[in-house]
Specification:
Number of helices: 13
Oligomer: single chain
Number of strands: 6
Strand order of the largest sheet: 1-6
Length: 322
């Protein structure tokens, strides 16, 4: 089963590279004016080819990156917890996970020692702190990995692993999109959209200037342009959709399956429980280190009520949304 999935993923990747070569290659094969431009203005086609290579590189980087698997985060937590126990035993100063690659976001009303991996803490207790009170350990345990899942985690049946901040499994990439590679995925979509728009501009310019020349070249470019238009519309909508998710600190899975996710059932509509404001959401998304595992606690009912409070003029002046 795993070999078949890898083969299909490899086939899709080769098909995507072939589509890139066809659309970009048609520009240089059919447009003689562009080839002449490479001599007079070499920087223009060079920038276009640079964007083409950057999009392909970003594709393979995103496809080969880890989305942030739960088993890796659990291993990092247990390793950091063991180091803290050793340092606490040899030093009277309290130890902290601040310098490690594991970050847990827990509200101030919770005991800090439970978040920092004291001798009384464990992975199960840490996960329980992140979920609403009264949640049973059995309800949090993945039936496939047999690990307790923090909020926003989900088991991916294609990867056969639990993923932190699971967004979706991308068929074209052959990989999951999660906490550690969502930023790379957004940049890939951005580059791909820019490349398609630029290619479409080349097609339109050629058709306008060479409509009375060889008719079969025009027909080929018109067919490619129609296909490219569909791709551009899809990419633009996908880029806007994921930009909205980033600004509100949501995932595709949370947005689509909101009513089926246990910890989101009691959250009012149009309330984003994990949003820290636009600025902090962007900072966490763009500037967080790739090796960190960041886990967030589900807000309390009081905090959810504050998030659901309607905006006032004072809130707009003080940039409450940011």
């Amino acid at each position: 089963m795993t070999i078949e999935v890898r083969r299909s993923s490899l086939g899709l990747k080769l098909a995507l590279v072939a589509v890139h070569v066809v659309f970009v290659g048609a520009v240089f094969l059919l447009d003689g004016d562009l080839i002449e431009k490479t001599v007079t203005e070499p920087w223009y086609p060079a920038l276009y080819l640079l964007l083409f290579l950057a999009a392909l590189i970003q594709y393979f980087v995103t496809a080969g990156s880890s989305p942030g698997y739960l088993i890796e985060a659990r291993g990092a937590f247990l390793e950091a917890n063991a180091r803290i126990k050793e340092s606490s035993a040899s030093s009277k100063q309290p130890a902290s996970l601040k310098n490690d690659s594991f970050i847990v976001s827990i509200s101030s009303n919770q005991p800090e020692k439970s978040a920092h991996g004291n001798t009384s803490s464990s992975w199960s207790k840490m996960v329980m702190l992140l979920h609403p009170p009264g949640t049973s350990v059995r309800a949090l345990t993945c039936a496939y990995c047999m690990f307790e899942q923090p909020p926003r985690s989900k088991h991916c049946h294609d990867c056969d692993k639990c993923v932190l901040q699971f967004d979706h499994h991308c068929v074209w990439l052959g990989a999951c999109i999660g906490q550690n590679n969502h930023c790379r995925f957004w940049w890939y979509i951005c580059m791909e959209t820019a490349l398609c728009l630029w290619t479409g501009v080349f097609y339109i310019i050629y058709i306008q200037t060479s409509i009375s020349r060889t008719w079969w070249k025009d027909m080929i470019l018109i067919v490619l342009l129609c296909g490219l238009l569909i791709i551009v519309i899809f990419l633009l909508l996908l880029l806007l959709f994921h930009s909205y998710l980033i600004l509100t600190n949501q995932t595709t899975y949370e947005l689509v399956r909101r009513r089926r996710i246990p910890y989101l059932r009691g959250v009012p509509e149009k309330v984003y429980p994990f949003s820290k404001g636009i600025r902090q959401n962007l900072y966490r998304f763009c500037c967080a280190q790739g090796g960190e595992y960041y886990m967030e606690q589900m807000p309390t009912q009081l905090e959810l009520g504050e998030l659901a409070r309607p905006y006032t003029c004072l809130d707009l002046l003080t940039c409450r949304c940011c």
